[in-house]
Amino acid sequence: MIAVRNPWMMASAILALAALLFPLSAGESALSWSDIPALSVSVLIFAAMSVWLARGALRGLPLGLLLLGAVGLGGGMSLYVLYQAGAGGEAQLGFWLFIFALWTAVWCGLDAISSFRSLNTWAQRLADLLVPLMFGCWLLFLWEVLTVGFGVPQVLLPSPSMIAVRIAGSLDILAADFHQTFIKAVISGYVMGCGSGFAVAILVDRVPFLKRGLLPLGNLVSALPIVGMAPIMVMWFGFDWQSKAAVVVIMTFFPMLVNTVSGLSAAGVLERDLMRSYGARYWQTLFMLRLPAAMPFIFNALKINSTLAMIGAIVAEFFGTPIVGMGFRISTEVGRMNVDMVWAEIAMAALAGSAFYGAMALCERAVTFWHPSYRQRR
C-alpha cells in the first residue's frame, strides 16, 4: 500500500493515467495517445514520477524545481499536440485531463517553492523569484492552450503567440507609441503632479486652515470621472501630449497630497516633543524627523500614481491625439478589428507600468530601509 503524503501529486498521477484512456482530438484528424507512442511513454513516466513524489520523496526547493521541469516538458508535449499533430480547435478529453494533471503538478511545485526557507541568500532569492516568474509563465501557457485548443476566434481573444508575432513585426510602431504616451505624457505629468502635490502638502501642513478647506476639495476633484475631464483638457491644451500630461497631473496630484499630509502626521509625539526640547524650528523638525517618517506614505502615493498616470494618459488619448500614441492605436485598431495589435499595445502598457512601479518600489527600498514599516515586511 502506498503511503500518500502529497495528495496533489497522487491526483496528478491519476489524471495523467486517465488521460491515456480518452482521445486527444476529434474531427478528420482524430488522434489518440496510441498514435503518438513517444508521448504516451512520456505520460507514463510523468505519472510514475508523480506517484514517487506523492510518497514524500522530495520536499522544498528540489521538489519544486523537479516538478517545474517536468511541467515544462509536459507543456511542450501539449503544444506539440496542438500545433504539430493538428489538434488545435478539436482537443478532446484526453488532452484536457493531461492539462489538469500538469495544473496539479504546478500547484504542488509552486507551493513547495513558496514555503522554502533558507539561510543561503542566493537560494532564497532564487525561490522568491521563481514563484512569480513560473506562475506568470503558467498563466500564459494556459491562455495559449485554451485559445488554441478550443479554437477561439482571433477577433475575440488572440493567443499569446499571435500577440508575440505582432509585437515582433511592429516594433517601430510600438516604439513611437511608447515615446509619445509614456516618455512625453506619463513622465512629464507624473513629475508635475507628484511634485506639485508634495509642495502643496507642505503648505497645507504649514497653514492649518488649508487642511480643512483644501482636502475636502481634493476628495471632490479626485472623484471626477476621467472620461469627463479628458475632453476638457484637450480643449484647453490642444491635441498633443500636453493635454494628456494635464490629465495625468489631475490624477496624480491629490493622491500625493493626501498621502503626504497623512505621512507628516506619522511622527510620534515623543519624538516631536524631543525636537521641541532641543529648540528645533519648524523646518528643522520637518526635514530631520517628519519627512523621514512620512517616506512610506510618500512612496505609497508614488507607487499608486505610477499606474494611475499610465491609465490617465491612455484614456485621454481616446479623445483627441496626433496619429501616434497607445490610446490612439488601441481605439484605431479596435475599429479595424486588428485585435492582436490592440493586445500588443496592452502588453507594452502593462510592461511599462509594471517597470515603473518596480522602479518606485526599488527607490522605496533604498530610501526607507531603516524604517520599521520596511523591516516588518522582510
Task: Describe what is shown at a glance.
The chain is an all-alpha fold.
Number of helices: 15
Helix content: over 70%
CATH class label of the largest domain? Mainly Alpha
Query: What would the principal axes of the Cα set say about the shape?
Result: flat
Question: What is the CATH homology-level superfamily of the largest domain?
Answer: MetI-like
Q: What is the third-level CATH name, the topology of the largest domain?
A: MetI-like fold
- Strand percentage lies at under 5%
**Rg from C-alpha positions?**
27 Å
Corresponding CATH architecture of the largest domain:
Orthogonal Bundle
Give the helix/strand class: mainly alpha
Name the poorly predicted regions. Answer: none
Number of self-contained structural domains: 2
Question: Number of DSSP strands?
Answer: 0
Q: Biggest β-sheet: count, sense, barrel?
A: none
Mean pLDDT across the residues is 83
User: Secondary-structure element sequence?
Assistant: HHHHHHHHHHHHHHH
**Ends distance:** 43 Å
